[in-house]
Amino acid sequence: MAKKSLMSVWTRSLQRSFGQAARSQMQAGAKALKQGLKAAQTAQMSKMAQAKRARAPAGPGDWLPGVALGVGGARQFRVFRPPDMVVGERLPLLVMLHGCGQTAGAFALSTRMNTLAARERCLLLYPEQDLLANPQGCWNWFATRSGKAQAEVALLMAAIDQVCLLYAADPQRVALAGMSAGASMAALLATRHPERFKAVMMHSGVPPGSANSGLSAMGAMNGRRKASPVMAGAMASGRPLLSLPPLLVIHGRQDGVVAPANAHAAVQLWAAAAGAQAGPPRSSQRGKRYAMTTTDFKVGARVVACLVEVDHLGHAWSGGAKSQAFSDPLGPDASRLLWRFVSQQFGT
Fold this sequence. Notes:
The protein is an alpha/beta fold. The protein has a single domain (61-346), classed as Rossmann fold (3-Layer(aba) Sandwich), CATH 3.40.50.1820. The chain has helices at 2-54, 104-111, 113-120, 148-166, 181-192, 214-221, 229-235, 261-274, 334-346; strands spanning 62-70, 73-81, 91-97, 123-127, 169-179, 199-203, 247-252, 277-278, 282-284, 292-299, 302-310, 317-318, 327-328. 43% of the residues are buried.
């Protein structure tokens, strides 16, 4: 009898052990299944996001992919090529640098530059920041102390060289344009390689030499730090500042992200470098769009810098597509102003 009771106790204990093991295995299996489903869902969402980023904006012309490699890693880019290019044709190149929270495709949609470039016969290069390099998708224009900014400059120059080689861009007619962090990066490129560019446009950006770290960048964006010709000269690798390409600055007077004081600082930097004087400001308004005030800084008849201040405009591309973030359709058309400025420098 005792033997039978002992056997029963042992059996029940064994059953409990098997039951616990089975439950543990089932729980582990359920957890693994849940993790697998979550990973699959994440992968699917990532694939959908990549497909969305790669989708060509509507309209004529080609939307071509590319990758630039360098010590700073790799950066994807997109090239807009106008339709019906002929053999031997060399077109000017405009480099379009997006702002934080944007992609190459979103920037193209916001600015509508592809439509303009198709009509005016111009190639467009849209580099795209990697989220691993900056989680907000910002170009690291401020990170000069760590060397990250210089590494990104090298990557962008590699992308430009690649497009000039593969897509018949004219290396003698290259200009830069950017929004917000892209504007600040465009200005940094212009100071480090001034001989490579015919013009540069900053929309709602911070002038070079205003920051050297993430912390100082916040102060610069709020207008609490000033750039000096000496600082910009150091960033230009010892080249004379007189060689800086002509600058167009567009900035909203109601910008609450990048203080409008940065627009004045940028044109003053360019003007001081060349000994340019400010002309009388000109006010204008087209239809129901926001009014703007334009001030030219000249040496003789040559425009060194041009400042366009837009009433009521916040931190947004002036005259941009209504459906896009950081885009205000009520402002004067910044894309047209941009093309008018750079085409004068291209001689077209």
